[in-house]
Description:
The complex is a heterodimer.
Chain A: E1 5-17, E2 29-41, E3 45-49, H1 56-63, E4 71-76, E5 79-80, H2 85-89, E6 92-96, H3 108-117, H4 123-136, H5 152-165, E7 170-174, H6 182-198, E8 203-208, H7 211-217, E9 220-225, E10 228-233, H8 235-240, E11 246-253, H9 261-264, E12 268-276, E13 281-288, H10 294-303, E14 308-314, H11 318-326
Parallel strand pairs in A: 3-8, 3-9, 6-7, 7-8
Antiparallel strand pairs in A: 1-2, 1-4, 4-5, 9-10, 11-13, 11-14, 12-13
Helix pairs in contact in A: 3-4, 3-5
Chain B: H1 6-24, H2 30-56, H3 63-94, H4 99-103, H5 109-138, H6 150-178, H7 183-196, H8 208-216, H9 218-231, H10 237-240, H11 244-276
The structure holds adenosine-5'-triphosphate and magnesium ion.
Amino acid sequence: MLSDFAVETLDLCRSFKLKKAKKENNDGLVTALDNVSLTIRKGELFGLLGPNGAGKTTLIKILSTLLLPTSGKALVDGIDVVRHPEKVRKRINMVTGGETSGYGILTVRETLWMFSQFYGIPTRIVRERIDHMLKLLDMEKFARTKIGKLSSGMRQKMNIIRGFICDPEILFLDEPTLGLDVQISRDVRKYIKRWVKENTKKTVLLTTHYMAEADELCDRLAIIDQGKVLICDSPSNLKKSLKRDAVFHIEVGLLTDGLDRFKAVSGVKSFAYEHRHHLGRTLLKFILEDDSVISNVTGTLSQNGSKIITLSKVEPTLEDVFVSLVGKGLEQ
Amino acid sequence: MKYSSIKDNLRTIKLSSWLGWAMESNWADPFLFAIYSVIRPIASSLILVFMYMVVTGGKTKTELFAYIYIGNAFFMYVYNVLFGISWVIHEDREHYQTIKYIYIAPIRMYYYLFGRGTAKMIITTFAVIIAIAFGMVILKIPVDLGKVNYPLLLVSMLVGLFIITCLGVLLAGVMILTAHHSWYLTEGIAGIFFLACGAIYPIDILPIWLQYLSKILPLTYWLELLRRAVLGKSLSVTLSYYSNFQLMLIMLVTTAFLAMFSHYIYRTFDHIARRYGRIDQLTNY
Ligand SMILES: Nc1ncnc2c1ncn2[C@@H]1O[C@H](COP(=O)(O)OP(=O)(O)OP(=O)(O)O)[C@@H](O)[C@H]1O
Ligand SMILES: [Mg+2]
């Protein structure tokens, strides 16, 4: 064991040059990571939560030796990913959700066996491990199926098993449940949680779009936006930080125009919305300086002629934390 | 880069050969596969025969014809394996989307690529044998099986496969960086070798400056030695001053330089690819 930390980054930056066509006013650079400094302890299930383009995948790619940083340092198990990628590779594995990777002509079992062999794990141990994991994720009956014939959900599940099969010290999961149905997502989350619990020194770094997933799984999480880490703490501490504020949810009839004006109402700290087209309603989410401000909000609503369907004061959720920091909802 | 042991590298080769073979032999119909393996080398040889006959007015029983025919047959290795190895990068990246998982595994990419190429080498070996047999029986190419220098043939083949692997690794380095499968590049490089290494003409007829290139490319000596082993003689005047042993030495020395060069290029290009984020970049084309 080389370090107490599974992952440490120090002022990590990464920028990309844009293709000529996309260059606009700026110097043609996109900053994907902007001075990211994070430490993840061994045994943690750590989450990265952020909107599209926040830099989550970029960070995972750097840590898994696929990409070099522009500046700054990144250590995995105390080892520099730039200088000693080959040492890092022995300790890690990675899975990206939402893609169809794999050799269609191999069966599930063959694929898992092959990838485990790249890590030199004895076949006897691998065989047991494959059986065990296929069973846990309810995939036994697909063991002999060629992966070209699997549904995309099953294929992704197999890919997730591939991540665990070499029993890495640190596993990077980039949106592992992206596009999976509810039941499969639940199985996968259960498995991830169980793995970290059973192996107290093993670490998972997971990125996600789903608030509930981050809330349910992660010991600690970082909220990241436009390449910057905005905050990093346990989900419960993050929610506590909003306790002093008043979080209100108001449902109105479908409202698509002029939503931005709610941000300007005095006393509104942040605001987000969610359209519920199937109900013909829009959910407005406010974080207010205190309860009394709600009258300003309802005033603005009635000026606009919107009828309030429901109004409730709610316990702050992770999403509210996100909204208060990023200034918009995840789906917005 | 240093991955622990020979054992690990052998395991990588074993695995990727297994994978390469599974993919090569994935023909719905083994009969079609066999036909394809036979027809293709013969067809490609026939094109050459036809061109030669047009140019010379139908003489196929000359020494030059035998020279060309044998050179062309063995050159299939260069073409197939070079193409195969560079194609591995492309298909693992675009079609199978596995390249990043293979890249981040604790294996050396060279050995992985070499392994994926072995299936191609075996299939090509059949093709070469078929093409030569066809030449002997139908076109009366003067190969006397009793007089073939088998030890020389075997040693040259082993060194040759190593040379071709080094070239494959070099090209793979370019592929990993460019993120496109550059057909023109593979074709172009194979074409240059075809001309410069004396596959169809003795290198004596090339312009002097091109002969310098011929002389630093180990494939030149490889083809020369193969012809000497199979036909008992070759036609190149320039190379005729060297004994088999001397040619073998020169081939080994130039091969050693090639190996170092391709290792260097691969490492450098790999690093640049990591800097630009090209390893797993999809072009969807
Ligand atoms: N290879 C690349 N070339 C140019 N720009 C890139 C490249 N990779 C990422 N970017 C840019 O860097 C930023 C961060 O991208 P990244 O993929 O890390 O975000 P993300 O948080 O994973 O987003 P998502 O939730 O959509 O997966 C984006 O603006 C993206 O356009
Ligand atoms: Mg991403």
